[in-house]
Amino acid sequence: MAGGALSVLALNSCTDTSETKQLNIVYIMTDDHTRQVMGCYGSDYADTPNLDKIAEEGVIFTNAYVANSISGPSRACILTGKHSHINGFTDNTRTFDGEQQTFPKLLRKAGYQTAVIGKWHLHSLPTGFDYWDILIGQGDYYNSPFITMGDTLKTEGYVTNTITDKSIDWLENRRDKSKPFMLMVHHKAIHRNWMADTCHLKDYEEKVFPIPDNFYDDYDGRKAASLQEMDIREGDMDLLYDLKMYRPGDESRLRRNYISDDKRHGTYGNMNDAQRQAWDAHYNPIIKEFFSSNLKGKELMEWKYQRYMRDYMKTVKSLDENVGRLMAYLEESGLLENTLVIYTSDQGFYMGEHGWFDKRFMYDESFSTPLIMRLPKGYDRRGEITELVQNIDYAPTFLEIAGAEIPDDIQGVSLLPLLKGEKPENWRNALYYHFYEYPGEHAVRKHYGIYDGRYKLIHFYGDDIDEWELFDRNTDPSEMHNIYSLPENAGTVKQMKSRLKELQVMYKDPILEKYPL
Predict the structure, then answer these.
(1) pTM over 0.85
(2) What HEC string does 55-103 produce?
(3) The pairing of beta strand 371-374 with beta strand 59-61
(4) From the first residue on, what is the mean pLDDT of each consecutive set of 10 residues in the chain (517 residues)?
(5) DSSP string covering 463-511, please?
């Protein structure tokens, strides 16, 4: 593996007799990984054996969702166990208030050692951690600088390998082994613009990915969907920045990502000579063939989709390998049976559904998120967990597992009963969602909504839109047919609005004052 990855086999495989019997927590989170490309969620073309093994040996949540499908706000919801309007980080223009209550701070009070390594993306420095080593902003795929406890240091290597190296190093050499620990491993992958490790550049090049059934969606009856700017088929997916089709003198439409020839797509300018040679050897023939083909119309749209899928899946492969490397370390060091391992993403992502990439919408591909767990010894639950869960639930789960008190102001609920195999009679029967970032990149309008496991009701609001959408996911799982205005659904609309109001009151969302139900 490229990037000077630390060999797990060289590390001490003996169990440390000083380890406490309190449960440890390893929370692995990627960026923009979606369950459509995980084998354990039924994908027939995803190569994710290490992630699938976690699901096979533990549990897989089939109805896991987020509260706000965008990176920073999702992370704030996870840290606080509260919806965006309560934690204050409603969109990526905000700065996270690190003075507020977070679950790492509460775990420290309970005697845990806490660390976060990798992507932070909250515009303020971490608080509540004994150790932190974070990327600057989004970070770079190659040779990215990190801020290590306040010092900015450049690293050599591919970022997914580097984050895993740093995580294993903390576990082996930097933590206090007399204490239980909570380690957050936050990967940059699989965020745009999907730059693969050099050892995986040739992977998937012969693979032809199936075109989603609704790739050519015309957004009939869904105004907000027609107004977005995240269309693979149009100019929203940039040939230079996203798809790496560079020729000398070309400028990307995304000027903020374009500085000079050697900064032509993201972190190309950060590469060392060997990395750049490998990159050019792979992409230059593809670039030459693309421009000589002069593709138009449907051919160009579907070429862009295949190029996107191949690059995305290459970054997934590196991610899966590194999850396997971390899991191997935990097992060989004697930590695995005493550790809760969680794998998730900050939200889902579109893999061509509706013709899109990116996230933001409450439609299922971005509203949902993968969530799998390998449970410590003593927890016998295995297989699928079908209850409705949300990322605000992680904080109370970690606190209860640690034996710490869950503050009353946390809005999520602990998943521990589900992990014990219980079937709580009063488990939630609906989820609340609210997206705020407009105006913003990709032009997705502000919206909030409710999902009850069958019906999804969404309200898009703002100066230029006031539209409602209703979907019956039993009959329309791809959410193509807005049935809000059909007379026969008036009773369902009334009932869903009543339940929506109940959630807005319960979660104290002030939007109810502006748009009373």
Answers:
(1) yes
(2) HHHCEEECCEECCCCCHHHHHHHHHHCCCHHHHCCCCCCCCCCCCCCCH
(3) antiparallel
(4) 36 36 94 97 94 98 98 98 98 97 98 98 97 95 96 95 98 97 98 96 97 98 98 93 85 50 64 95 97 97 98 98 98 97 98 98 98 95 97 98 97 97 95 98 98 98 97 98 98 98 98 96
(5) TTEEEEEEEETTT-TT-----TT-GGGHHHHHHHHHHHHHHHHHTT-TH
Question: From start to end of 102-219, where are the E strands?
Answer: 113-118, 131-135, 145-148, 151-154, 181-186
In Å, how far are 1, 75, 394, 499 from 425, measured between CA atoms?
48, 29, 20, 18
Amino acid in the structure at residue 468: W
The answer for residues whose C-beta is within 8 angstroms of residue 453's C-beta and 6 or more apart is: 63, 388, 429, 430
d(CA 51, CA 56): 9
Q: Return the ∠ at Cα 329 (arms to 326 and 335), rounded to 5°.
A: 110
Q: How far apart are CA 468 and CA 497, in angstroms?
A: 11
End-to-end CA, the chain: 55
